[in-house]
UniProtKB/TrEMBL annotation:
Organism: Roseiterribacter gracilis
One Pfam family, short name: NAD_binding_10
GO molecular function: aldehyde dehydrogenase (NAD+) activity
Protein name as it appears in the record: Membrane protein
Residues that span the membrane, as ranges: none
Family matches, as InterPro entries: NAD(P)-bd_dom, NAD(P)-bd_dom_sf, NAD(P)-dependent_oxidoreduct
GO cellular component: cytoplasm
Domain NAD(P)-binding: 11-159
């Protein structure tokens, strides 16, 4: 029998997966978290750690039994082996949803889009990505839409927040564990960029799960728009009491990308920092009434404090 308030989270120790876990608990859900070392995870009220691997279909199907939602927030670390791992993992979630009747929730990205869709990204904007990673994201969404299972996809700009993850903020602009004397800025001055504060993003997902939704429900989250390409770095400077800003040396990636997978993937994403990008959230606001929104300075301070940067 399916419960209306039990969710399986794949990727509960990651940035968005961890924040969605927190948001679901606040909204009265019980959470099952699949982990390859479940016995080593700390006990937490409302969370049941389940031994298993998102790459093993039987593990995912068994863990999803009786759930109402499957949060698919798992990604290979460091962008390694995306071609071999990402699509099989989403197929495992689809199999689990088909068996349990649960809705799959996918935190989406702007990687799906190419320059022809910019600057304002709507849910129906054309998806012609310029990168391999973007093409994989498009294929993931296609398989979800065609699967016949209920799906919720919410697309976001670049993540930042208290939980470290694979994002520019904690993986490039600052270094967790030390007060930044300098900030490595990937943006281009005069170019608007969209950021999503992880707790706000997770709150939106949790709130949407409590609304009546179409079988395939798709939304965009506006988040924080860095209007001139310098607002995020300025917020970090205010939080830490000043720090020098260095612009990211994109030219170095051209030299090293052939030898390092992570740098190759970063190089492919440069186009996302060279043109205005904004997310049209009117559809989301029409359903929720308002988008969860923490003021930028508060969000940045909270993030840096949690990352032990201040």
């Amino acid at each position: 029998m399916r419960s209306e308030r039990i969710a399986l989270v794949l990727g509960a120790t990651g940035g968005i997966g961890g924040e969605v876990t927190d948001a679901l608990l606040r909204n009265g859900w019980a959470v099952r978290a699949l982990h390859r070392r479940a016995a080593s995870m700390p006990a937490r009220r409302g969370v049941t750690w389940i031994q298993g691997d998102a790459m093993v279909r039987e593990d995912v199907v068994a863990a999803a039994t009786g759930t109402a939602a499957i949060i698919h927030a798992v990604n290979p670390p460091g962008y390694r082996n995306w071609n071999e791992l990402v699509v099989p993992m989403v197929e495992n979630s689809i199999a689990a949803a088909q068996a349990s009747g649960a809705r799959i929730v996918l935190p989406g990205t702007i990687y799906n889009y190419g320059p022809d869709a910019f600057p304002l990204l709507r849910e129906e904007s054309p998806q012609r990505p310029r990168t391999r990673k973007g093409a994989i994201r498009v294929e993931m969404e296609r398989r979800l839409r065609d699967s016949g299972v209920p799906v919720l996809i919410v697309r976001f700009g670049d993540f930042f927040g208290p939980k470290p993850g694979q994002n520019w903020f904690s993986g490039g602009m600052v270094k967790p564990g030390k007060k930044p004397r300098s900030i490595l800025d990937p943006n281009t001055r005069g170019v608007a960029h969209s950021w999503a504060y992880l707790p706000d993003a997770a709150a939106a997902i949790a709130q949407l799960l409590d609304k009546p939704l179409d079988r395939v429900a798709l939304f965009h989250f506006a988040g924080h728009v860095d209007r001139d390409g310098g607002e995020m770095t300025a917020a970090i400077q205010r939080a830490v009491g000043g720090a020098r800003v260095w612009f990211f040396p994109w030219f170095v990636l051209r030299l090293l990308a052939p030898f390092v997978t992570l740098l190759r993937e970063m190089k492919e994403m440069r186009y996302l920092w060279r043109t205005d990008i904004r997310m049209d959230n009117r559809k989301l606001v029409a359903v929720l009434g308002a988008e969860p929104h923490t003021p930028l300075d508060e969000a940045v301070r909270t993030s840096l404090r949690a990352l032990n940067c201040i």
